Amino acid sequence: MRVLVLLSTLALALMAHASSLTGERALVLLDDVEGAHVYLELWNDLQAREYNLTLHDVSQPVALNKNGQRQFDHLLILSPKMKAYPEGMSAKAVVGFVADGGNLLVAGSPELGNTVRELSREFDVEFDNKFTTVLDHFNYDTGFGKEKHDAIVINPATHMAKLDNIIPVDKIPGPILFRGIAHSVNPSNSLLTPILWAPQEAYSWESVNLNGSADQDPVISGKDISLVSVMQARNNARIAFLGSTEMLTDPFIFEPIAKQGEKETISGNRQFIEALTKWVFHETAVLDVVGVYHNKVGEENAPAHYRIKDNMTYSIYISEYHNGEWRAFSANDVQLELIMLDPYIRKTLDESPMDKDEGIVGTFSTTVQLPDQYGVFKFTVNYKRPGLTYIESVTTVGIHPFRHDQYPRFISQAKPYYTSAASMGIGLLIFTFVYLWGGLDSSAKTTKKA
Amino acid sequence: MSAETTSTIAKVLKPTILILIAIVAISSRLFSIIRFESVIHEFDPWFNYRTTQHLVKNGFYEFWNWFDEKSWYPLGRVVGGTVYPGIMVTSALIHNILHFFNFPVDIRNICVFLAPMFSGLTAFSAYLLTKELKDSSAGLLAAAFLGVAPGYISRSVAGSYDNEGIAIFLLVFTFYLWIKAVKTGSAFFGLLTALFYFYMVSAWGGYVFITNLVPLHAFTLVLMGRFSNRLYVSYSTFYAVGTLLSMQIPFVGFQPTRTSEHMAALGVFGLLQLRGFAELIRGLVTPKQFRTLLKTGIAIVTVVSLTILTLLSMSGVVAPFTGRFYSLWDTGYAKVHIPIIASVSEHQPTAWTSFFFDLQMLIFLFPAGVYLCFKELKDEHVFIILYSVFASYFAGVMVRLMLTLTPVVCVSAAIAYSTLLDTYLEKSEHVLATTLQGGASTSAASASAIESTSASKKHGTKSTNKDTSETKPHSAAASSRNNNASEKPKRFPIFSWDSRMMVILQLTWFLFMFAWHCTYVTSGSYSSPSIVLATRGHDGSQVIIDDFREAYYWLRKNTGENTKVMSWWDYGYQMAGMANITTLVDNNTWNNTHIATVGKAMATSEDVAYKVLRQHDVDYVLVIFGGVLGYSGDDINKFLWMIRIGEGVYPNEVKEQSFFTPRGEYKVDHEATPAMKNSLMYKMSYYRFSELHGGNAVDHVRSARMPAEGPTLSVLEEAYTTEHWLVRIYKVKDLDNIGRDLKDATAFDNGKARKSSLKRK
């Protein structure tokens, strides 16, 4: 029965199949549609993954939302120069688009306008001032960055976050080439993670005025410069901020690159971008709670409520969407918490070995004895790991005290009282018999009394 | 008219009068139904109604073990173990009986009409009680008085479905049975007393009054040297059976053996056993030996019992008195130590005017009645005297306890009134006839002699029922008084027609005034359901303000039953009953910390409050705001209590002092303190209030002109405000989707972009 439910749930999910779990409609905002051909490889790649791309000039009106319906599933803002939103769009609409479950990719450049800057600020991403660029006199590419030292070469092994759920380091064959604007992230925003940052020697400075005297320190420098950051919103919409539109273009993908005094290689940009868009557009690392079951040990169905100190089995079934197919999610750190204001029990769930039929669902279960405390408890699995869909499964169940007839009826401590009560009763009986029929001459006395 | 016809007529008249009294008692309680509708009133009745529904729907077993997950979220409440089930079981029983006979009466109507129905029974028991004290005509008067006395009506109008509604009947009836038991010395009546005591225990926490008054009566009788086998039998039966039965109510449990409030009853029980034992010994030994035995015995018993009591109290086996009990002795105690008790208006000391308001002419007949009791001073009169002394004291301490005072006032007032009537209505034929009999006496003293003859006759007939040893001295004294009548001149009998008429007319006029006053008070003050308000419009027509039900109905229709709604505890029962949602705190007030947490959320800034709201999974917050309407019982006026209760548990986060201006005033306008202006309660109450009259909004409760710029809210959003702004409901926002704090998110939604955080070093 349970397996059937699980499978039918999954079947529904599979029917809606596309590369992306959330949909294939993608809107790309460009400063100039004429110049879209520089991204040819990106378009090819996305179309190969079955995306329905709409390339859109920022000067033309467009609506993200029509009659309360989201019109696109993914939004790529590759228009850093944008002075104003296209008619029908606004910062509020973009934030609303994300709140509605749409994914967002924002790329900047040194010519970044205020529109995109203010939008990013809402996501706690602060781009540096206009016309600044990330400079590095040690790690520049001898081809693109010959003059200004602004195209920098980044080693993914050392300057990329080791979050295999977002971009697995071993999939990136070469260094990443970057030319663009720096941004910093607000560390207090726990949803936001930088995944690519600048080398220690880099700094952010105005690229147009490179020869002028530097009378001030740069606003940000070294590892504080984030180049690419991602955010997974609380509703699991995914957002990426790139400091560079150029890193997405064909030249940055195909041209051989080399640092000063090193051998020429092909950049890892293509794989980096592929992995990043896959993550942002919900093609990988998407978790789904297929089912949550709990029952008393030895029973089949979930009770309406438990009693204190019951033994309970809790299972959660989690499936992972990865590159177009569902597979069993596997982890050893999924925890169950029993919370009533504070957690009363916190226990790591055991991953059950699965049989072949259920191969696409990971099973996590445990058996606990409920606390000796009645109340309304939340059985919570709060599983939030960077890159993975947040899982916050809450089952609210009451834990009741003993009923009046569930206590032990006869207890040994009370035996003296049972004895005294019984002896009293028997004594009364005997006394009554003796008094009434015992042959004592009590008639005289009783009449006197009355 | 012959004596026989009189008694035949009396036999018919008495039941007729009693039935009429019951009808009057019931119908005078129906104002609210005629004016509004058949609806449950106030706060606690809503809980009783909800539990009754549960009982009727799920049966007694489920009710007895009911764990309510929807109140006191997330702690839950063991309803079965924290409730006096008497009233619910009574209604459910009536419901089931009616349905058995195929009368499909809705349980709501049974609940609404339960208190008026029981008031008829109360009147009847007042008749029985007073009949034991004086005679049946006094009894009829007492029944009439108690039937319409506003002090009792205040808690028993139709719709006021509360414990007191049946408890007053049980109180009076238990006292009647007790007096009957003491008078007859019958174990049967002792047992009946115990049974009704059990019913009383199951119905109302005020049973403690019986638990202490009956032992006090017994103790006083022993002190007066009136120990008798009658007392011994009746008290022992009552105490043993009653205590065992009372322990069957889960809410009472082992309290009778563990708490100080119940110790007096146990002590008197022990004392009576010792006294009985001493009587037994006295019969077996010589008087001299007995005296020695008595002295040593008393010394040993005193020392031993004191030691045991001290040890038990010290070790905590016998719980010390509860706070509510202390506040009975020291009215300032609660205010200092337990603000939650002091915050309830019905726990405040009584204003002296309300004695007259609730009892009218009875209040000055009452001392006269007590005086008459002193004059007779039989066992049962001692009881009434004790009752009146203690009830008067308690009624002065707590408004609510006016309820326990009312029956004894009615009884003693009836005694006084009927004595007056007896004196002034005595038939002249009778007087003349007896004058002839006592013709030997001098003419001046003759009438008084006759008075005492008839008095002694009365005593004589009554005393045959009783233990002769008790009343013999009385009748002996009476007869000796009869013989020496000339030595003790008494008052003149009233012969003259005109002086009789004057007094009788005046008394009748008083009765009219009393009836008029009772109707006026009932109709004007005690018949408001308080969930529906009525005012007069400009043209004098009645305007019904139904904001409470409007808000609760909105909640009911727009949220699920698992929606958690936070409000101050006053509205907990109503929300659970009417809106069918989950509440955090309610009128049960069993967990001070939980209430203090709500108080803290109301009294602190948005950021602090938001953490509390999140931790408790609150979905909506409800406040009562009377500023538009001028409804003075709103949350801003109760706010100081929230602060005080919150401060009791969270002294670092809530400080009462910071809500007062430097001049010590409690202000809400532009002079309000920062703590006040930042508090969630203030913000919720006055949010968008200033927009109401174009920046000239005036708070009609506090007569304050509000600043043109009202407070802003970021962690809550307005969900619903009722027609007259009386109830305002706010939705608690979720954490921001993209990780901003809610203040920024709200500003962004209002069109304000964030400022740059980068700064040149």
From TrEMBL, chain A:
Keywords: Endoplasmic reticulum, Membrane, Signal, Transferase, Transmembrane, Transmembrane helix. GO terms for biological process: protein N-linked glycosylation via asparagine. Pathway: Protein modification; protein glycosylation. Residues 294-437 form the OST48 middle domain. Residues 25-280 form the OST48 N-terminal domain. It is found in: Endoplasmic reticulum membrane; Membrane. Residues 1-18 form the signal peptide. InterPro entries: DDOST_48_kDa_subunit, OST48_MD, OST48_N. GO terms for cellular component: oligosaccharyltransferase complex. It is a single-pass type I membrane protein. GO terms for molecular function: transferase activity. Subunit of the oligosaccharyl transferase (OST) complex that catalyzes the initial transfer of a defined glycan (Glc(3)Man(9)GlcNAc(2) in eukaryotes) from the lipid carrier dolichol-pyrophosphate to an asparagine residue within an Asn-X-Ser/Thr consensus motif in nascent polypeptide chains, the first step in protein N-glycosylation. N-glycosylation occurs cotranslationally and the complex associates with the Sec61 complex at the channel-forming translocon complex that mediates protein translocation across the endoplasmic reticulum (ER). Belongs to the DDOST 48 kDa subunit family. Component of the oligosaccharyltransferase (OST) complex. PANTHER family: DOLICHYL-DIPHOSPHOOLIGOSACCHARIDE--PROTEIN GLYCOSYLTRANSFERASE 48 KDA SUBUNIT (PTHR10830:SF0). This is Dolichyl-diphosphooligosaccharide--protein glycosyltransferase subunit WBP1. It comes from Lobosporangium transversale.
From TrEMBL, chain B:
One of its GO terms (molecular function) is dolichyl-diphosphooligosaccharide-protein glycotransferase activity. Belongs to the STT3 family. It is a multi-pass membrane protein. Pfam families: STT3 (PF02516), STT3-PglB_core (PF21436). Residues 464-473 have a biased composition (Basic and acidic residues). One of its GO terms (biological process) is post-translational protein modification. Catalytic subunit of the oligosaccharyl transferase (OST) complex that catalyzes the initial transfer of a defined glycan (Glc(3)Man(9)GlcNAc(2) in eukaryotes) from the lipid carrier dolichol-pyrophosphate to an asparagine residue within an Asn-X-Ser/Thr consensus motif in nascent polypeptide chains, the first step in protein N-glycosylation. N-glycosylation occurs cotranslationally and the complex associates with the Sec61 complex at the channel-forming translocon complex that mediates protein translocation across the endoplasmic reticulum (ER). Its cofactor is Mg(2+); Mn(2+). It is an enzyme of class 2 (transferase). Its EC number is 2.4.99.18. Pathway: Protein modification; protein glycosylation. This is Dolichyl-diphosphooligosaccharide--protein glycosyltransferase subunit STT3. The chain crosses the membrane at residues 12-34, 78-98, 110-130, 136-153, 165-181, 187-210, 231-251, 263-285, 297-319, 355-374, 381-399. Residues 564-614 form the STT3/PglB/AglB core domain. Its main location: endoplasmic reticulum. GO terms for cellular component: oligosaccharyltransferase complex. Residues 13-413 form the Oligosaccharyl transferase STT3 N-terminal domain.
